[in-house]
Design the sequence.
């Protein structure tokens, strides 16, 4: 009996996010353990964000040009390589170099494309995308729990190496558990259509279609209260400690409260439980 391809797609999404988030929340502790300054830490995080932003349209074009299979393999491989390079980093230059694979680490985008090809347009696809939010919340809960256990028996960089090993698992699941015919038929129908290049005019045309802006608004709105509260708390904390050295939230926990990696993971576990 062959496994349900949609269920496998959810499993791929969860495993990938576990690997990705594990790297994300371990980096500040790893950088502090190397003795890197907070300013240089900011350079690393800014580089990560810039590569992610620049890589999003590039990755979308790669998926459009070479197919979802190639895109997912590239995403998983980039996450694996990123973890290995990060683990081997020893100074600011090697840390910045380890962020280059992040250009192709767009799991949300890739798995949405996969699920859209495994489902029919309409209610089935809408329900499938809604369940992706639940899968992401589950990953947020799993990551701190796994990291706390792993940190207790390894060094601070242990979760980074573990994330690379976890990133290799979806490569096997995708190849052996999802029949290519389940999504290649959709690929062939897409390739038969005339694909218009992504330009400002085509993007404007898409945005002008009925309901598109409404969907974007509904997708963004739930995050506004969370970001607003976080921003207000940052402003208040800066006002209270404006005469002291100021750190972003995670570094603030480390510097002011001497937060260990385990305590940080417990905070993320609480946040992930609320998020899910």
Sequence:
């Amino acid at each position: 009996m062959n496994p349900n391809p949609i269920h496998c797609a959810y499993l791929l999404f969860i495993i990938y996010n576990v690997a990705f988030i594990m790297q994300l929340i371990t980096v500040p502790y790893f950088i502090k353990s190397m003795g890197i300054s907070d300013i240089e830490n900011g350079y690393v995080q800014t580089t990560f964000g810039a590569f992610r932003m620049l890589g999003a349209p590039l990755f979308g074009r790669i998926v459009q040009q070479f197919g979802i299979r190639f895109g997912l393999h590239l995403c998983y491989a980039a996450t694996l390589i990123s973890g290995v390079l990060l683990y081997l980093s020893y100074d600011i230059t090697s840390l910045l170099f380890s962020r280059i694979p992040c250009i192709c680490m767009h799991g949300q985008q890739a798995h949405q494309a996969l699920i859209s090809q495994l489902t029919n347009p309409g209610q089935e696809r809408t329900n499938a995308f809604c369940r992706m939010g639940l899968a992401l919340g589950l990953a947020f809960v799993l990551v701190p729990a796994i990291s706390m256990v792993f940190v207790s028996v390894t060094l601070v960089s242990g979760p980074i190496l573990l994330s690379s090993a976890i990133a290799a698992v979806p490569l096997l699941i995708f190849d052996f558990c999802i029949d290519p015919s389940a999504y290649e038929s959709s690929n062939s129908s897409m390739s038969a259509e005339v694909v218009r290049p992504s330009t400002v005019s085509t993007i404007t045309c898409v945005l002008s279609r009925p309901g598109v802006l409404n969907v974007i608004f509904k997708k963004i709105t739930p995050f506004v209260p969370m970001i607003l509260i976080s921003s207000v708390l940052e402003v208040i904390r800066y006002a209270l400690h404006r005469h002291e050295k100021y750190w972003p939230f995670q570094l603030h926990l480390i510097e002011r409260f001497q937060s260990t990696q385990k305590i940080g993971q417990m905070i993320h576990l609480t946040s992930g439980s609320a998020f899910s």
User: Anything to note?
Assistant: The domain at 5-195+260-275 is CATH 1.20.1250.20 (Growth Hormone; Chain: A;). Residues 188-195, 241-247 have pLDDT under 50 and may be disordered.
